[in-house]
Design a protein that fits this description.
The protein is of the alpha+beta class and 100 residues long. Helix content is 24%, strand content 26%.
Length: 100
C-alpha cells in the first residue's frame, strides 16, 4: 500500500513532510521506530498497530511512503484515521485502487 498526500484535480502533489515531521504525525497514531539503525538500507521503518511503514531516507521530503499490512483487522481503522486526519490517501500498489 502506498500512502501519499491527497491532491484535488488540477492540484500539484506535495510532499508528505520531512522524515522527522512524518514521524511526529504518525506518532499520534501509535506508530514509531523500534530504535534500530536501519537507515543504511535507505529506509526508516515505523511500526504501527497491524502495519509497518517504510520511508525512504534518500530524500528529505518523501512524496509517498509504503505501508505493509500484517493484521488487516487492526490496521484498517488506524490507517483510515491517518488518512482522514492528515489528508493522505491509501493506494494498492498492485491494482492502483485508491481506498481512502
Amino acid at each position: 500500500m502506498v500512502l501519499s498526500l491527497k491532491a484535488e484535480p488540477g492540484e500539484e502533489v506535495s510532499p508528505l513532510g520531512t522524515i522527522e515531521e512524518i514521524k511526529v504525525m504518525l506518532g499520534d497514531f501509535n506508530t514509531a521506530s523500534d530504535g534500530s539503525k536501519n537507515g543504511s538500507l535507505g529506509l526508516e521503518r515505523l511500526y504501527g498497530p497491524g502495519f509497518v511503514v517504510d520511508m525512504p531516507t534518500s530524500v528529505d521530503t518523501p512524496m509517498q511512503v509504503m505501508a505493509s499490512i500484517h493484521d488487516a483487522e487492526v490496521a484498517w481503522p488506524v490507517l483510515s484515521r491517518i488518512c482522514r486526519r492528515l489528508r493522505w490517501s491509501l493506494t494498492d500498489a498492485e491494482s492502483g485502487q485508491t481506498f481512502i
